[in-house]
Amino acid sequence: MSRIYIFDTTLRDGEQSPGCSMTTSEKLEMADALVALGVDVLEAGFPIASEGDFEAVDAVSRRFPWVQVCALARACTLDVERAAKSLEKAKRPRIHTFIATSDIHLQYKLRKSRQQVLDDAVAAVSLARNYTDDVEFSAEDATRTDPAYLEQVSLAVVDAGARTVNLPDTVGFSVPDEYGELIARIVKVLGDRAIVSVHCHDDLGLAVANSLAAIRAGAKQIECTINGIGERAGNAALEEVVMAIKTRHDRLPFETGIHAEKIFPASQLLTRFITFGPQPNKAIVGENAFAHEAGIHQDGYLKNPATYEIMSPASVGVPESRIVLGKHSGRHALKKRAEDLGYQLSPADLEEVYTRFTQMADNKKGLRNEEIAVLVEEVVGRGAVTAK
Ligand code: KIV
Ligand code: ZN
Predict the structure, then answer these.
(1) Residue 61's CB: how many other CB atoms inside 10 A?
(2) Is residue 132 lining ligand 1, measured as CB closer than 6 Å?
(3) What's the 291 CA to ligand 1 centre distance in angstroms?
(4) Is the CB of 138 under 6 A from ligand 1?
(5) Which domains does the chain have, with CATH numbers?
(6) pLDDT in tens, 132-161
């Protein structure tokens, strides 16, 4: 079975987005959850960017010496040396150096020629290798880079000592078959000389689909974040990547080292530290991910959860599924909720409660347990129901 390495960048790319900055102690607590989750590589910061980032990489390295801790550096001496310094206490340090390779970035951002960028990439990787054997190189904006040039850069950095070559879809521009083709091309060129890694942004909502296409094309590492946080529309969500692989093993015959039942607690912890939580309908960790409102769904779910759930909430650490009683709900769910609240309804009484319930629910977003209890009590008052 092909093992996929999960490279978590919640504390770096994730933290780098609006409303997501974390203090060192928050990063340490988050790192604890990520280690428990079983991530293979933990990117803890971009040390040249701030004192806080430097401190966080250093603190994570000291606290989790057995973990592969990674620090980001642009492809220049100052950055690589700063990253190396922040990792001094790490037992398994990884330096991750990057430079943009697309013509648009070369022309407008870097104002460098292709040869200059190639030279900078090779120099940064060689310098990083003086500090650690574990060097990753990223060709920023790889998906808008001339593939022939990308091959040239990838080969050159591997010759210089990079063990991982990451091909980011920095601006979330690629589509799955196209990204898969690019990855297959570089995997073929590098053979087993280096691991090909992917790092996808979600600008078109394709970050997870692109990451999955990439592993089918031979990539062995996926860079991702909890709740999909990250620059702009975010990165590929760790929980979605992992659960797609687990749930569709028939089509995605890969394995990760992630303990999936720790996903939801990690998502909740992150939500405590940043300014926003996952959207309610977010896959896996959103508030509605295991909630059922439509009567037909509720009826099926109550008969057998597998009718409407492709994974159990427990498998990702969500305490339980939720039956939401709203205007689309049916008698089966209402009867079950009444039972949960301590009432047994006869068929005629259920009918009466249900009629009143639908009148109320029509004008509301959903009824809370207390409201259901009041409704039932109104009927109880007429002796139509009996408390258990
Ligand atoms: O999106 C990107 O290209 C990055 C690199 C620094 C890996 O975050
Ligand atoms: Zn990124």
Answers:
(1) 24
(2) no
(3) 35
(4) yes
(5) 2-273 (3.20.20.70), 291-387 (no CATH)
(6) 999 999 999 999 999 999 999 999 999 999
